[in-house]
Amino acid sequence: MIKFSHKEQFTTQHFRRGRLGSNYPIVTLQYTKGIKVNNGFFKSDFNYSKWNFYLEHDFTDGRIGELSYSIDAGITKGILPIVLLDVQKGNDTYYYNSYAFNNMNRYEFATDKYVALAIEQTFGSFPFRYIPGIRKLKWRSLATFRGVLGDMSAENRIANGYYDNSIDYHFTVPDKIPYMEAGIGIDNIFHLVRIDAIWRLNYLNNPGISKFGIKGSIELKL
Questions:
Q1: Contact at 8 Å (CB) between 54 and 28?
Q2: Using CA of residue 119, residue 124, residue 126, residue 128, what is the dihedral sign?
Q3: Rounded CA gap, 200 and 209, in Å?
Q4: Which end of the chain is more exposed for a tag (fewer CB within 10 A), N or C?
Q5: What is the residue-level pLDDT of the chain in tens, covering all 222 positions?
Q6: Residue 113: CB partners within 8 Å, gap ≥ 6?
Q7: pLDDT value, residue 32
Q8: Mode of pairing for the β-strands spanning 16-21 and 9-13
């Protein structure tokens, strides 16, 4: 794994090192190699290569607030079971996960090549500072968007039963239209609670999905 973070700041205390982030994009490149081996002591059934590119950037955008975005892209070469491919991170709980698609079910979307985009825009105390009685609460507003576009080779589709209608489990490959979801939220409730309302924008005919959800999380704010 190679990571580049221009002018990133750290705090160091004895044996601990903490990240303070950077005003510049942080880029991470990762490569994983699987080797098929069966010599009695080491055993592995699959031969594959996996590359991943991840870029994250947080910055203040003038008087609007703060913008955070990330680009995640990956490709896997080799015929593998679905759990070793790029299964997009779904979240079918009531807790908001900033690293997952919160209106996507787990194991609903799978690929062996993909690119994903996540955006979060905070607006500070707008519009609550204009509402009497509410502005004293110091709530903060935000908006989010997530999307992913990907594909899967014919070999991996066949190996994982994509064309087999006799099995109960079936996954979706977002190869022509990206999966997308968007939301709005309120942060800094009691300096601790965050509430997000999230709309699923497409793939609305997939079985067992939620078109709209309200999820909460806990983030300590000072």
A1: yes
A2: positive
A3: 9
A4: C
A5: 898 876 666 555 555 555 556 678 999 999 999 998 887 777 788 999 999 999 999 988 878 899 999 999 999 999 999 999 999 999 999 999 999 999 999 999 999 999 999 999 999 999 999 998 898 999 999 999 999 999 999 999 999 999 998 888 899 999 999 999 999 999 999 989 999 999 999 999 999 999 999 999 998 766
A6: 74, 75, 76, 86, 150, 151, 152
A7: 95
A8: antiparallel
DSSP structure class, residue 15: T
Q: Alpha-carbon distance 11 to 86, whole Å?
A: 34
- What is the pTM for the complete model shown? 0.88
Q: State pLDDT tens for residues 144-180.
A: 999 999 999 999 999 999 999 888 889 999 999 999 9
Specify which residues 181 forms β-bridges with. 146, 200
Q: Phi and psi (nearest 5°) for 204?
A: -80, -10
Residue 2 forms beta bridges with which residues? 29
What are the tokens at 33? 């190699």
Give Cβ neighbours of residue 41 (< 8 Å, ≥ 6 apart): none
- Across the strands, what pairs with 185? 142, 196
SS3 206: coil
Q: How far apart are CA 73 and CA 124, in angstroms?
A: 30
Whose CA is closest to 149, among 192, 92, 88, 70? 88
